[in-house]
Design a protein that fits this description.
The chain is 26% helix and 26% strand. By secondary structure, it is of the alpha+beta class.
């Protein structure tokens, strides 16, 4: 059985079960129809949510959750792409803070070294109807990238058209040796190669003639400023995707706040196809929420 047929069968199952959701099912279906001619899409790495650090104690988790929920209500996205979420319970409780926002899928990836469940998962939530939602780990290619992606097909209300949406968190820049840095670059490139292949399969094999637009967002851990040695950003552009930071001055797109060791930089991105050429913007939130700023694009689906 060839790879495309296997993927088609997999997605047919996903339509019913939303494969990849951890510890609970997603909200698959049709919420009350609303005027979504302008769709707000936000990607946000919320830094070990809840807790803001790996081994946060209960009080830290509660405090972090409360301030993030308050900001989420204010930001009010229609589609939300998240990174660094601990578990499905935390994800669902966060979505509950914003009326109409429902969990679609959260990954359940395991650490590559100890094989234990990893507390930095990737999620998608939506106010729009979600027709299918799932998560997949990256396959082993020349290198085996860390984690994987979470995806959803979201129906544009008032039509049968679908948006194919991906949330990513590519390999970090953590490295002790020069070879480790090269491996990080190779992992990110391999992730994008597999992502582009997956998008093509979904459009041509699974959701034939249904996908009118593709949205890819998340923490890419790289940028277009020649700061790193990977080709992830250029690979997306070469594949015909619009980069939502195109034309935005560097000082206006520093989505990672920086640290004691490193200066702020652009890590969080949106790439789109078939939905115009939206311009990304940083959204101001308190330092207590995350070391990343939320990034938003507005999608016009009124055409």
């Amino acid at each position: 059985m060839n790879r495309k047929l296997l993927r088609s069968l997999f997605l047919l199952v996903a339509l019913a079960t939303a494969y990849g959701c951890a510890h609970g099912g997603p909200a698959i279906g049709s919420p009350a129809e609303t005027d979504f001619s302008q769709i707000s899409v936000i990607t946000w790495n919320i830094e070990w949510y809840p807790g803001k650090r790996r081994f946060a104690v209960r009080e830290e988790r509660l405090a972090h959750a409360e301030i993030v929920k308050e900001e989420l209500r204010r930001l009010n996205p229609d589609i939300l792409l998240l990174q660094e979420i601990r578990n499905y319970e935390s994800f669902a409780e966060l979505c509950d803070a914003l009326p109409g926002l429902r969990p679609a899928a959260l990954s359940a990836f395991y650490g590559p070294i100890d094989g234990e469940y990893w507390d930095q998962q990737i999620g998608i939530a939506s106010k729009l109807p979600v027709m299918a939602a799932w998560s997949e780990p990256w396959r082993k290619g020349d290198v085996k990238p860390r984690r994987g992606f979470t995806a959803a097909t979201i129906r544009i209300p008032g039509s049968l058209d679908l948006l194919l949406v991906y949330s990513l968190h590519l390999k970090s820049n953590l490295a002790d040796r020069a070879q480790d840095r090269i491996t990080n670059y190779e992992m990110r490139d391999e992730s994008i190669r597999q992502l582009l292949e997956h998008i093509q399969d979904m459009k041509e094999t699974v959701f034939v003639d249904r996908v009118v637009g593709v949205i890819v967002g998340g923490d890419f851990n790289t940028n277009q400023d020649e700061q790193f040695g990977d080709n992830a950003i250029q690979m997306m552009i070469d594949a015909g995707f619009h980069h939502a930071w195109e034309g935005v001055p560097r000082e206006d797109r520093l989505s990672w706040r920086g640290s004691d060791r490193f200066q702020p930089t652009t890590f969080d991105h949106f790439f789109t196809k078939g939905v115009g050429e939206p311009i990304a913007e940083l959204l101001e939130v308190p330092d207590e929420t995350s070391d990343h700023w939320p990034v938003r694009i507005m999608i016009d689906v009124s055409r």
